[in-house]
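Z., the sequence and structure:
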Amino acid sequence: MSVLVTGASVGFGAAIVKLLVEKNYKVIALARREDKLKELQNECGKNCKILALDVRDAQKIKDEIDKFDDDFRNVDILINNAGLALGLCSADKADIKDWEEMIEINVLALVRLSRIFLPSMVENKNGHIINIGSIAGSYPYPGGNVYGATKAFVKQFSLNLRADLFDKNIRVTDIEPGLSGGSEFSLVRFKGDKKASDKVYENANPLLPQDIAEAVFFAISMPKHVNINRIEMMPTTQAPSALNVFRG
C-alpha cells in the first residue's frame, strides 16, 4: 500500500512518514528541501522514496510518481499535510502576499493533489485522503483571519468529498490539531523569530508531531468499513473556550 505524505521534511510530516514506514507502508515523502528528505530517507530505509518538489505543482508530482516501481506508483493514501500560517496581525494590517500564499498552499495545492489522485482511487475502488486541518477552522482567534479560513475550507472540503465518494469505497478524514509544538509552524508564522516562536509553547505541554502521526495511523488502520470523518485534538492544557492555554 503506497502513501504520499506532503510537507514531509520536518514536523508532522516527518513523524507521519517514520511511523508509517515502521508499520510497513511504502511511503513517498514530498517536500521542497532535498537535504532534509535525504536525512529522512536514510533513517527510514528502502520503504521510503523522496520527491523534492513544490507541493503546488500537482502534475509534476504525479508525473514523477508514475516513474516509480509498482510498489510506490499507485497512491492508495494521500496525506495532505503541507500547510502554513503566516503572520498574526489583524486583518487591516496583514500582508496580502501572506494571505495569498496561505490560500495557495493550504487550499489550492491540497485541492489539486486530491483531484489528480482521486480518479485512480475510484478506479481501484480503494483509497483514503487524509487532510491535516486545524482547530483554527472551527474556533476563530485574533490574527487567525485567512489561516483559519483556509482550515475551515479544508474541513468542509473533506466532508463534501465524503458526500461525493460514499459509494466508491474512498475514505476521507480531516485531522484538526490544536496547539502543537515540535515543528517549524510558529517559526514560519513569525518569519524566523525564534523568541516569538518559543513563547507560543512556553510551559504549555503542547501536542507533538508523534501525536498527530498516531492519529493518522488510527484513521487509516481502522477496518475498511469504518470512515473517521474528523479528529479534533488538543493538548489537555488547552480548551476550546477562548482557546485557553494552561501554562503550568
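The first helix runs from residue 11 to 22. The longest strand covers residues 170-177.

Let me know what you think.
H.
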